[in-house]
Amino acid sequence: MDTSFIPLEKRFRGYLPVIIDIETSGFNPKKNALLEIAAIIVEFNGNRDLQITERYSTHIIPFKNAELDESALKFNGIDPYHPFRMAVEEDEALHTIFRPIRHAMKRNQCTRAILVGHNPAFDINFLNAAIHRTQNKRSPFHPFSTFDTATLGGLVYQETVLAKIAKAAGLEWDNEKAHSALYDAEVTAELFCRIVNRWKQLDSQPLDGRGLRD
After folding, report:
1. CA 121 to CA 148: how far, in whole Å?
2. Of 147, 148, 162, 165, which is most buried, counting CB atoms within 10 Å of its CB?
3. Among 127, 110, 101, which residue's Cα sits nearest to residue 18?
């Protein structure tokens, strides 16, 4: 088996896919707080199969005057001011997440990171709002392009709900751990890798006389 490092530069047009999941205090990215963020970096192994290589997550202190929707907090089970959360300010959280992503971009010879998420419009809107609030000038992410595992799941597994796609793909799903940013990001990353690797296998099959694959 070839175990040499294979950069991702050409697989996604120079983008490094980074799986992001975010937990918040509501649905308005300008008014509601970003409470948790998790980032999963995926890279090629020696067989050019995509796999998880790094995991990062952090709890975040609500920004000043942020609105905290009780129904949202009940849904995700987060107490924003619990002393054991070990939460940090938004700018520190973004620095913690962005730094290893930039390192991964460099070694994979990628020019930008692209957010991979499940219904990622929610995640990228909250991420962009936090970037704007903290005036972060070093975001590695494309500001609006994303990969969506809900769409990919509908195409490959005929399901769009993350839990149902995971089960259809043969992945484990634990309802007790769901709605933790790191757990949801890990499941989404496993799903994304599985779909990309499955496509590689399909794409390698020879075409028949009609231009179709078996």
Report:
1. 9
2. 165
3. 101
Confidence of residue 2 (pLDDT cuts 50, 70, 90): very low
Neighbours of 197 (CB within 10 A): 16
Query: What confidence tens digit (pLDDT) does each residue in 178-203 have?
Result: 889 999 999 999 999 999 999 988 87
* Rounded distance between C-alpha atoms, residue 45 and residue 48, angstroms: 5
Side chain identity, residue 25 = S
CA atoms of 83 and 205, how far apart (whole Å): 55
Q: How large is the average pLDDT for residues 86-99? A: 97
Distance (Å, whole) CA 117 – CA 184 = 9
Q: Which residues are catalytic?
A: 179
User: CA–CA separation, 145 vs 17, rounded Å?
Assistant: 11
Closest CA to 197 of 10, 47, 44, 50: 50
| Number of residues in the chain | 214
Name which of 187, 99, 93 is nearest 149 in CA terms. 187
Contact 154, 160 (CB under 8 A): yes
DSSP string, 182-204: HHHHHHHHHHHHHHHHHHHHHHT
Q: List CB contacts of 86: < 8 A, sequence separation 6 or more.
A: 59
User: Could you give the CA distance from residue 106 to residue 183 in angstroms, rounded to a whole number?
Assistant: 26
- This prediction has a pTM of 0.91
> Cβ(200)–Cβ(45) under 8 Å?
no
